[in-house]
């Protein structure tokens, strides 16, 4: 087998929360709502450019989840542009952010949480100034 790279990740939640997640990932993270195949269940596909990177799938109320689902995931990272504008937008929305960096690379990282508490990293490679 040859691994060709990352395809997407999927978050499952009840419909009321799924709409909040959609709004967060579109309005805060900057993904775009795009086409989704006509599955029997409701959901959204969010895109970064032409690539679907996040699938939001409706979970039935009380749907059982594997115990390991909540215990091992730390965060997902997105490569971004526009650090200053992003920091201003996050501050204006009152979103808690932890700013960090990758030593020796010049990469700036902004860590935040989505409405379900999942970790999100916004990664910027551009020089500051």
Describe the structure.
- The chain has a four-stranded mixed β-sheet, with helices on one face. Strands 5-8-7-6 form a four-stranded mixed β-sheet, with no helix packed on it.
- The chain contains two helices and eight strands.
- It has 129 residues and is α/β, with parallel strands linked by helices.
- It is 18% helix and 36% strand.
- It has two domains: 1-61, 2,3-Dihydroxybiphenyl 1,2-Dioxygenase, domain 1; 74-129, 2,3-Dihydroxybiphenyl 1,2-Dioxygenase, domain 1 (Roll), CATH 3.10.180.
Q: Quick gist of this model?
A:
It is built from 2 helices and 8 strands, in the order βαββββαβββ. It is α/β, with parallel strands linked by helices and 129 residues long.
Q: How many H/I helices?
A: 2
CATH class value of the largest domain: Alpha Beta
Q: What is the correct CATH architecture of the largest domain?
A: Roll
Shape: globular
Q: How far apart are the termini?
A: 44 Å
Strand % is 35-45%
Spans where pLDDT lies below 50 across 5 or more residues: none
The CATH topology assignment of the largest domain is 2,3-Dihydroxybiphenyl 1,2-Dioxygenase, domain 1
Q: Biggest sheet, open or closed, and with what strands and sense? A: 4 strands, mixed
Largest beta sheet: strand ordering: 1-4-3-2
Fraction in helix? 10-25%
Entry keywords:
129 residues, alpha/beta, 2,3-Dihydroxybiphenyl 1,2-Dioxygenase, domain 1, 2 domains, four-stranded mixed beta sheet, 2 helices, 8 strands, globular
Furnish the topology, listing elements before pairings:
Elements: E1 9-13, H1 15-27, E2 32-34, E3 43-48, E4 51-58, E5 75-80, H2 83-92, E6 98-102, E7 107-113, E8 119-124
């Amino acid at each position: 087998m040859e691994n060709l790279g990352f395809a997407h990740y999927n978050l499952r939640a009840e419909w009321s929360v799924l709409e909040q997640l959609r709004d967060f990932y579109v309005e805060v993270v900057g993904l775009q709502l795009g086409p989704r195949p006509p599955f029997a269940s409701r959901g959204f596909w969010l895109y970064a450019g032409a690539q679907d990177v996040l699938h939001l799938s409706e979970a039935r109320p009380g749907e059982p989840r594997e115990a390991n689902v909540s215990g091992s995931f730390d965060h997902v990272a997105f490569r971004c542009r526009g650090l200053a504008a992003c920091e201003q937008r996050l501050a204006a929305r009152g979103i808690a952010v932890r700013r960090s960096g990758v030593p020796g690379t010049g990469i700036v990282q902004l860590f935040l949480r989505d409405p379900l508490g999942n970790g999100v990293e916004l990664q910027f490679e551009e020089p500051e100034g």
